[in-house]
Structure prediction request, 91 residues.
Amino acid sequence: MKSQNIDIEQYTAIFKALAHPTRLTIAYNLMLKPECNVSRMCECLNIPQPTVSQHLSILKNADVITGSRHGNQICYKIENPNVIAILKQLS
Prediction:
C-alpha cells in the first residue's frame, strides 16, 4: 500500500520496531555512533546479551539496522535513510 510515494508498510514496520524504549535507545545510539557490537550494547544498556540480541533481531527484521561480521563479532549500524530521518527528529 502506497500513499503519496510513501511506503506505508515499510514505515509501519519501522515504527513498530522503534516503539519499544530499548529498541529506540539502541537505534538512536547507533545513529550517533555509526557502528557497535552486542557486547558493547550490553555494557551500555546494562541488560543481558540474550535480551539485546532479541531486540536487535526485531530491528533487523524491520530493516532498521544491518549487521556485518568482523571476526567473531557482528557489528550493527543504521543504513536506512528513512530511519535516520526519523531518529534525527529526536535530536
Notes: The mean pLDDT is 92. Residues 18 and 35 are 18 Å apart (CA to CA). Strands lie at 2-3, 6-7, 36-37, 66-70, 73-77. DSSP finds five helices and five strands in the chain.
